[in-house]
Amino acid sequence: MSEAGGGRGFGYSVPQRAPWSLVAATAALCLVSATSVWTAGASPMSREEKQKLGNQVLEMFDHAYGNYMEHAYPADELMPLTCRGRVRGQEPSRGDVDDALGKFSLTLIDSLDTLVVLNKTKEFEDAVRKVLRDVNLDNDVVVSVFETNIRVLGGLLGGHSLAIMLKEKGEYMQWYNDELLQMAKQLGYKLLPAFNTTSGLPYPRINLKFGIRKPEARTGTETDTCTACAGTLILEFAALSRFTGATIFEEYARKALDFLWEKRQRSSNLVGVTINIHTGDWVRKDSGVGAGIDSYYEYLLKAYVLLGDDSFLERFNTHYDAIMRYISQPPLLLDVHIHKPMLNARTWMDALLAFFPGLQVLKGDIRPAIETHEMLYQVIKKHNFLPEAFTTDFRVHWAQHPLRPEFAESTYFLYKATGDPYYLEVGKTLIENLNKYARVPCGFAAMKDVRTGSHEDRMDSFFLAEMFKYLYLLFADKEDVIFDIEDYIFTTEAHLLPLWLSTTNQRISKKNTTSEYTELDDSNFDWTCPNTQILFPNDPLYAQSIREPLKNVVDKSCPRGIIRVREESFRSGAKPPLRARDFMATNPEHLEILKKMGAASSIDAEDGLRFMQEMIELSSQQQKEQQLPPRAVQIVSHPFFGRVVLTAGPAQFGLDLSKHKETRGFVASSKPYNGCSELTNPEAVMGKIALIQRGQCMFAEKARNIQNAGAIGGIVIDDNEGSSSDTAPLFQMAGDGKDTDDITIPMLFLFSKEGSIILDAIREYEEVEVLLSDKAKDRDPEMENEEQPSSENDSQNQSAEQIASGSQEVDLVGQESPEESSLNSHPESLSPADTDNAASISPSEQNSNPTENHETTSLDDECTDLDNQLQEQSETEEDSNPNVSWGKKVQPIDSILADWNEDIEAFEMMEKDEL
Ligand code: DMJ
User: Fold this and answer.
1) In the chain, which end has fewer C-beta atoms inside a 10 angstrom radius, N or C?
2) Residue 151 Cα, ligand 1 centroid: separation in angstroms?
3) Is 462 in the pocket of ligand 1 (CB under 6 A)?
């Protein structure tokens, strides 16, 4: 049997096994309804256009996968800027991120089932042969148990699932004899020692060769793991058990889940972000649906779908009720404290939570899914990508974006659930942005900073495992995929596991915990799919009507805290709590409130805690705002055409690129290369951007020397070989303590790795033109037109390859000898610049951008507008729909107070219980 809809949740068939629960059944019903009824609103997309977009996705995949195979394989990942493989130990360590790399050709394994989804069966067959021939799982490398499970074990199982499907069809893979499954089993056994704890929660890391215990293992001393790390194993482990008949894997994964469930905070039914694997104590007690927890929730619901075990659904529903009660503040999802769930733990959200609307579709709760997705889309429209973290008033908090697939995933599921072509348009924008801003000659590069558009030399394997699957499936009709996607469930890494596993090898005894679950109040799910009768069939504009009030939520937002139901009550007369940003030490009333915060009532204490927390955040934000944000060096000449954007450190002197138009020019090396004395080659740098090596004199002195020689700008390149903005925090170049007003040209700093990309380009192409700016500019449309995807790719690949194979020694005019440059003295003054974890946009940066400028200057008006809008909205919505406003119920004051009292009681109980 195959359900209608397709996709992660709804594509599953449920052959001869336990009956569906109400939730999953109604969720499936949602899709039946949605796909059979189409919606008005956004205009429907023609079959031709969908096919065109599907083909574009295929071409993009070829560009990413082809470059990985050509320039990186058998390394784990491609480094798309330097066009080579990332081999662990050969690159500077990036910390935890590197724990995904086990010298097991990660990207190839993670891409296996994508090849089949994208109809590349021949390539799949080749890829499987390569995995069997080349991949070694016995390396002396310490890897993350979580990442190895979802990417490698999941990749092998997804590959096996589709290999046996193809074999059965009779054309491809006829030689296949479960070899991928045997590898998966071997890997499964290698991961098992991680579970050797009294709690049953796995250690976060394991040595593939030596396990945990042996001294050679170099791991096993960790005490903590993240909830998602311990709670995201059941799909792969159960699949492995059921495919092979070895029950141990499923047993271990279940035990870990049982333990997490036992440890949930009993009053709030929430879990924290990290837990002690020996004692079971929560180490980090904040709780959200993003980083650290995300796929724990995902796997509870999907374990129910795959394994048909009601206890997983009951657990999921209990957590979901808590999430909707405390964390969901539509359209936002904000972390709270597990013991004090009415208290926000943060004022920002992370990008990983973008998967949640997709999970809500699986659950059947469409309305909040539409709202959160719409909010995220507006953030994307503002920055082209979802920054790793953004504040509740939608400013960038962490500026990176490693090409994460979560938003594409949710877009796909929302399209499946609503059939609304709006989501196809969203997908089209994602494709355009990837091609416009992340595509580089040798693949797709992660964004180092979405504000400047600069790149990082990184293309994570999940980009191939997930992004291309979801984008392709978004535009695909049933006949565009060679098998029935509805017969499979997607793991968190988008690997495909067949639903028939639910009835195979069911020998694991299920824990009967049903009595532990509390009866849920269904009114929390007023807007879930059971309302299909009044949703899609009668109101084809349903999804659009939910999005409409949120249309300008990001642009119109003001720097303010989120509105919680409790605060809404203050609009009706009561005094709002004092917020850190409004505090004035000279205001006696404020001082009085502060005093009270330390006093008796728990509400005052709660406000006090929040106040302190806000103060800390505010002061770190202010500190960051005093720093200059990073800048961009964009290579605009052939064959880069603006595609490669390097992250550069700013200077505290010279032309401020945030206030002036960008500076564009050809680059030339100064002589002497360190720029510490009058240049001997002024004719070479005149009218150009001079390259100077760091060291031996002050930055300002270098700037003066190149300026005197007629340079229009300068790029200082770090002399510490191998340094990179991927691994070292950027800094800003400080002046020399004297007046630097005489320096009028812009000066930027590049770490050695980024600098060598320019130096290699000079060696290869001689004439290299760059743009120095605060933010990468769109590529030159004329040059864009010259691009012919296939032939140009060839030449891009060729040039990238040439660069990759070129030596790092660059024959530069006037370059000093290695002996000279090895004199590594740094008398320049440095000051920390906006770093990786870049804070919010600084006032100067806001001023540089006309749109943002407008936003800042008209803030008060807009705040008033938004308040009025909210007010009006709740009034009008109250007329048409007495219960709903911005996803929050508009309650009469007495009911708000009753709720409030209930909150206080719960809060007091929790305090007694837990503190
Ligand atoms: C993927 O590896 C998985 O989706 C995981 O669950 C968390 N996110 C990354 C991609 O962002």
Assistant:
1) C
2) 9
3) yes
Is-contact 730 649, C-beta < 8 A?
A: yes
Q: Is 662 a catalytic residue?
A: no
Beta bridge partners of 667: 689
- Give the number of the atom of ligand 1 that is nearest the alpha carbon of residue 298: 6
The structure tokens listed for 12 are: 């599953």
Range 372-375 contact pairs with CB under 8 angstroms and sequence separation of 24 or more: 372/330, 372/331, 372/332, 372/333, 373/407, 373/410, 373/411, 373/414, 374/331, 374/546, 374/547, 374/550, 374/553, 375/331, 375/332, 375/550, 375/553, 375/554
Residue 673 is encoded by which pair of tokens? Answer: 């290369």
Ligand 1 pocket, residue 295 CB under 6 Å: yes
Separation of alpha carbons 378 and 654, rounded Å: 35
- Cβ of 149 closer than 6 Å to ligand 1, yes or no, is no
Instruction: Report CA(462)–ligand 1 centroid distance (Å).
Output: 7
Which of 352, 363, 379, 375 has its CA nearest to residue 324? Answer: 363
Question: Which residues are CB-contacts of 626 (< 8 A; sequence separation ≥ 6)?
Answer: 842
- Phi, psi (degrees; rounded to nearest 5) at 337: -90, 140
Alpha-helical runs (H) found in 9-74 = 22-36, 47-67
Ranges of the chain whose pLDDT falls below 70:
1-41, 505, 507-540, 557-586, 594-626, 779-915
Active site residue 678: no
Of 374, 388, 420, 606, catalytic: 388
Task: Please tell me if the CB atom of residue 566 comes closer than 6 angstroms to any atom of ligand 1.
Answer: no
Report the amino acid identity of residue 208: L
What's the 491 CA to ligand 1 centre distance in angstroms?
A: 10
Q: Which of 250, 294, 298, 374 is catalytic?
A: 294
> DSSP secondary structure string, 240-290?
HHHHH--THHHHHHHHHHHHHHHHS-TTT----SEEETTT--EEE-EE-SS
Cis bond leading into 331, ω under 30°?
yes
Statement: the pTM of the whole predicted model exceeds 0.90: no
Region of 494 on the Ramachandran plot (φ > 0 left; ψ -120 to 50 alpha; else beta): left
> Does the Cβ of 492 fall within 6 Å of ligand 1?
yes
DSSP 59-115: HHHHHHHHHIIIIITTSSEEETTTTEEE-TTTS---GGGGGG--SS-HHHHHHHHHH
| CA–CA gap between residue 388 and residue 403 (Å, rounded) | 10
**DSSP readout, 544-589?**
HHHHGGGTTTTTT--S-PPP-HHHHHHHTTSPPPPPGGG--TT-HH
Distances (CA, A) of 611 to 26, 561, 620, 845: 43, 11, 14, 28
CB 845 within 8 A of CB 451: yes
Residue 589's pLDDT is: 74
The angle subtended at Cα 692 by Cα 688 and Cα 694, nearest 5°, is 155
Nearest partner of 812 among 755, 759, 757, judged by Cα? 759
Provide the angle, in degrees to the nearest 10, between the axes of the packed helices 468-475 and 47-67: 160
Helices (H) then strands (E): counts for the chain: 32, 29
- Positive or negative, the CA dihedral 403, 405, 406, 408 is positive
Other C-beta atoms closer than 10 Å to the C-beta of 186 total 12
Question: Could you read off the pLDDT of 389-411 as tens digits, one per residue?
Answer: 999 999 999 999 999 999 999 99
Residue 324 contacts residue 253 (beta carbons within 8 Å): no
The reply to whether 855 belongs to the active site is no
Q: Which residues contact 845 (CB under 8 A, 6 or more apart)?
A: 451, 629, 658, 774, 852
CB 180 within 8 A of CB 124: no
Q: Distance (Å, rounded) from C-alpha 505 to C-alpha 527?
A: 38
Three-state DSSP string of 592-649: HHHHHHCCCCHHHHHHHHHHHHHHHHHHHHHHHHCCCCCEEEEECCCCCCCCEEEEEE
Please tell me the predicted confidence (pLDDT) of residue 738. Answer: 83
Active site residue 147: yes
pLDDT of amino acid 627: 73
CA dihedral 298, 301, 305, 311 (to 10 degrees): 140
pLDDT score of 625: 56
